[in-house]
């Protein structure tokens, strides 16, 4: 069950260009949140912005976290895109923040230990919701595809390297890795994953990326889950401001905050 609670900022640092990492000491949420779930954060004490903003948890360190540092803390990787995220950059160490979580349904994991290939495809800040998954899947056959418009949008590669050596990078301007989109790069490599067990594909990024993915290969050959990022009002199912159209026979419009944010890609209908 999600709940509202307070946490204490432990760090809020620019990692590169428009991207920041916010650390919050908040054991109640750090102990419960699963990869793909999210929190609604009150980004400042001011009246504006009134609405909380949704964020995935880049890393959560529960009480039994194998590394002893930062236990009870969670980390949010965020990009400045507007007034709320700009205000977030002013949060300081020691400041209290209010958050609601854990919200939504996270990724379904393969049965572990897993012999299947696990493939993560992240575009831009979308890799934020995939990192905690990579940590859980680190002892499996794990492949990580990271993409962005330029090298400035390629984030946290060193953290992913702690989970796997199979990392593939693409930038649209060719300034780092292969030139092109991360979907193009994945498509050139997908034959690697032909095998006896159906590979798991986990993805997060802009809507156009999911659309491209779902149209460009037979998604049924993969167990393909996508974490969607729509604009949200409440974050807990009340306002219906976040719906996407699906092939669900009874309720085609599903709430990203409640039924998602993770959906099977084959169930999403693109208009
Ligand atoms: C489940 C979920 C998890 C998310 N996780 C992360 C995360 O880990 N890191 C991160 O940086 N961002 C994440 N986001 C997106 C983040 O919530 C938005 O960037 C943030 O709310 C923008 O607030 P703002 O006030 O700065 O922007 P606003 O001033 O509200 O908007 C500025 C611009 O950004 C666009 N925009 C705002 N929100 C979204 C959105 N959700 N999707 C697409 N475009 C948007 C607006 O259309 C507008 O053009 C997530 C969103 C969801 C739904
Ligand atoms: S954001 Fe209100 S129902 Fe999803």
Order of helices and strands: EEHEEEEHEEHEHEEHEHEEEE
Helix content: 10-25%
Query: Could you describe the largest sheet, including whether it forms a barrel?
Result: 7 strands, antiparallel
Q: What is the arithmetic mean of pLDDT?
A: 93
Total helix count? 6
Distance between the termini: 33 Å
The oligomeric status of these chains comes to single chain
> What share of residues are in beta strands?
25-35%
Overview of the molecule:
The protein has helices at 27-30, 83-88, 128-136, 157-161, 182-189, 207-216, and strands at residues 3-16, 19-25, 38-41, 53-56, 59-61, 73-79, 96-103, 117-123, 141-148, 167-171, 178-179, 200-204, 223-227, 243-245, 253-255, 262-264. By secondary structure, it is α/β, with parallel strands linked by helices. The structure holds flavin-adenine dinucleotide and FE2/S2 (inorganic) cluster. The site of flavin-adenine dinucleotide has 23 residues, from strand 4, strand 6, helix 2 and helix 3.
Keywords:
globular, 7-stranded mixed beta sheet, 16 strands, binds FE2/S2 (inorganic) cluster, alpha/beta, 7-stranded antiparallel beta sheet, binds flavin-adenine dinucleotide, 271 residues
Blueprint (SSEs and pairs):
Layout: E1 3-16, E2 19-25, H1 27-30, E3 38-41, E4 53-56, E5 59-61, E6 73-79, H2 83-88, E7 96-103, E8 117-123, H3 128-136, E9 141-148, H4 157-161, E10 167-171, E11 178-179, H5 182-189, E12 200-204, H6 207-216, E13 223-227, E14 243-245, E15 253-255, E16 262-264
């Amino acid at each position: 069950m999600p709940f509202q609670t307070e946490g204490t900022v432990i760090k809020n640092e620019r990692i590169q260009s428009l991207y920041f990492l916010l650390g919050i000491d908040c054991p109640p949420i750090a102990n419960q949140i699963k990869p793909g779930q999210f929190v609604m954060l009150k980004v400042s004490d001011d009246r504006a912005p009134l609405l909380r903003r949704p964020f995935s948890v880049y890393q959560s360190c529960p009480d039994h976290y194998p590394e002893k540092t930062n236990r009870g803390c969670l980390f949010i990787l965020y990009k400045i895109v507007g007034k709320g995220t700009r205000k977030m950059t002013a949060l300081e160490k020691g400041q209290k923040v209010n958050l609601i979580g854990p919200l939504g349904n996270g990724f379904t994991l393969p049965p572990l230990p897993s012999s299947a290939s696990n493939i993560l495809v992240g575009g831009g800040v979308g890799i934020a919701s995939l990192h905690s998954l990579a940590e859980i899947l680190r002892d499996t056959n794990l492949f990580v595809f990271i993409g962005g418009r330029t090298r400035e949008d390629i984030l946290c590669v060193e953290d992913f390297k702690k989970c796997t050596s199979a990392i593939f990078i693409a930038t649209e301007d060719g300034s780092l890795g292969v030139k092109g989109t991360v979907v193009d790069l994945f498509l050139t490599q997908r034959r690697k994953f032909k095998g006896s067990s159906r590979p798991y594909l986990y993805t997060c990024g802009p809507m156009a990326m999911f659309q491209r993915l779902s149209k460009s290969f037979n998604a049924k050959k993969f167990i393909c889950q996508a974490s969607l990022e729509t604009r949200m009002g409440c974050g807990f199912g009340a306002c219906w401001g976040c719906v996407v159209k699906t092939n669900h026979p009874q309720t085609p419009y599903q709430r990203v905050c409640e039924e998602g944010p993770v959906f099977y890609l084959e169930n999403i209908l693109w208009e």
